Amino acid sequence: MQLNRGAFAASRTWTGPAALQGPPELSAVFATDNGDVLISGCSHSGIEEIVEAATRVRKHPIYMVAGGFHLIPYPAETITALAKRLRDTH
Question: What sign does the dihedral 90-34-58-4 (CA atoms) show?
Fold first, then answer.
């Protein structure tokens, strides 16, 4: 959904186990000359899923992602793999 010239909203609802369900996510996407910049909230539905939702809304490459990713409990290898997937896919 376009909010303003160059500003868009992308929403994502959790599709995982009901016991882990968090609130629906709403992220902001800003069009820049370098590509889209995604600002996420808490990313309870998963940052990869949020990036995919933003890509469906805009159909432009993602240049940068910032926000709360809730990755502290995960080992460094998991976080590194996630970062590489985001870089290589989007």
Answer: positive
